[in-house]
Amino acid sequence: MTTPTLIRNGVDTEQVYGTLDALKAQPELARFVFRATNRWMDGTHSRTTIQGFWGAGQEDSSRDEPFEVDASEPPILFGHNEAPNPAEFVLHALAGCLTLTIVNVAAARKVTLTEVSSTLEGVLDARGATGLDDAYRNGFERINVGFTLKGEAPAEKLQEIVERAKARSVVFDIISNPVPVDVYAEVG
Amino acid sequence: MTTPTLIRNGVDTEQVYGTLDALKAQPELARFVFRATNRWMDGTHSRTTIQGFWGAGQEDSSRDEPFEVDASEPPILFGHNEAPNPAEFVLHALAGCLTLTIVNVAAARKVTLTEVSSTLEGVLDARGATGLDDAYRNGFERINVGFTLKGEAPAEKLQEIVERAKARSVVFDIISNPVPVDVYAEVG
Q1: Nearest C-alpha of chain A: how many angstroms from B37?
Q2: With contact defined as beta carbons under 8 Å apart, do B79 and B73 qualify?
Q3: CA angle in degrees (0–180, nearest 5) for A172-B87-A71
Q4: Burial profile A154-179: b = 16 or more Cβ within 10 angstroms, e = fewer
Q5: Are A88 and A73 a contacting pair, CB within 8 Å?
Q6: Which residues 45-74 of chain B have a CB within 8 Å of chain A?
Q7: What are the residues facing B12 on neighbouring strands?
Q8: Considering only alpha carbons, which residue of chain A is nearest residue B45?
Q9: What are the φ/ψ torsions at residue A99 (nearest 5 degrees)?
Q10: Model confidence pLDDT, tens digit, residues A174-187
């Protein structure tokens, strides 16, 4: 007799618990190194290639083809709208991370979700990044995230799921707290 | 007689200086509000739509069509590789921002670039985000960025351009320093 697979919110909860057990038994499997390579195209336009990463004790080979994602700027910021701009990609990364963390937490807590949608705003004053006034920082002064969450659970339980996701989201932490970034350049 | 347009590295430097003059004269034009909306698809997979933003004193209308960008996870992280994962999008945002800032700074300093490429690594221990061990943070412990920069200038000047870009990059600041993130959820 085989154990039936339990899929909730599109997440295989047996796989999730199996992975957690494996991490408890072999903590060295928890190390992940994600990677991206980027190449300047022209003006504000560049292209990032994403494929392999290190995780769970080995080099991942699940992606047959690399992902390619562009970034650029709108005309007011000297580009030609070839793609969203980098600050908008920060909002995308945050939305995607909070959303999948909400979905995973709900699955673990046996809550079936029917809708997760969000709107995000990032506010900045360009006097910072342009170097016109050091009283302003370069990046976002603040980010506002508004979720709409619907599911088969009381409102209080759905709110708890959002709180837990916020407390465990990889990208929420990266944006809310400092990450050391080392930049090295080979020039010539 | 018209003034000739000066394009360097694909950047219209006359436009850049015109914008800086306008910001000096009317600092309220410097306020930008970028936006993204996201919708959960299934499992770890979600889709972000990016189109309008507020900037330079008005709602931008330069994008006829919205950009759509997906995020998900590889199988080891419970997804199906529908798209890069949110942590990889953080690396993409950082690469795109540092690169276009390098290009803009070089244009302003009259340096013609011939190559800007980069490789990025973000390291994390999944014992944090999984809640297995609070000694580990959820997000990246550190990010390493390696640039290759080629252009028509001495090595020292190219290094200075990278340093200036690091000091002025919107996304470098967002990741290196804390950004307040307010998360609100309407549930039901």
Answers
A1: 4
A2: yes
A3: 105
A4: eeeebbbbbebbbebbbbbbbbbeeb
A5: no
A6: 45-46, 48, 50, 53, 55-56, 60, 62-63, 67, 69, 71-74
A7: B7
A8: A100
A9: -65, -50
A10: 999 999 999 999 99
Residue of B nearest to A14 (CA): B78
- Evaluate if residue A113 carries a pLDDT over 70: yes
In the chain, the amino acid numbered A6 is L
Residues with Cβ < 8 Å from A99, sequence gap 6 or more? Answer: A116, A118, B38, B40, B46, B71
What stretch of H or E contains B113? strand B113-125
Q: Give the helix ranges, DSSP H, for B40-126.
A: 86-108
Find where tokens 């070089």 sit: B106
**Yes or no, beta carbons of A71 and B92 under 8 Å apart:** yes
pLDDT tens per residue across span A123-167:
999 999 999 999 999 999 999 999 999 999 999 999 999 999 999
Identify all chain B residues contacting A148, using CB atoms and an 8 Å cutoff.
Answer: 185-187
Structure tokens at A171: 């990208």
Task: Give this prediction's pTM.
Answer: 0.97
Q: Classify A154 as helix, strand or coil.
A: coil
How many Cβ atoms from other residues are within 10 Å of residue B126's Cβ?
23
Which residues of A fall within a CB distance of 8 Å from B79? Answer: 100
CB contact under 8 A, A181 and B142: yes
Beta strands in chain A (DSSP E): 7-8, 11-12, 31-42, 45-50, 53-55, 58-59, 67-71, 113-125, 142-151, 181-187
- pLDDT tens over chain B, length 188 residues: 455 678 999 999 999 999 999 999 999 999 999 999 999 999 999 999 999 999 999 999 999 999 999 999 999 999 999 999 999 999 999 999 999 999 999 999 999 999 999 999 999 999 999 999 999 999 999 999 999 999 999 999 999 999 999 999 999 999 999 999 999 999 98
ipTM: 0.97
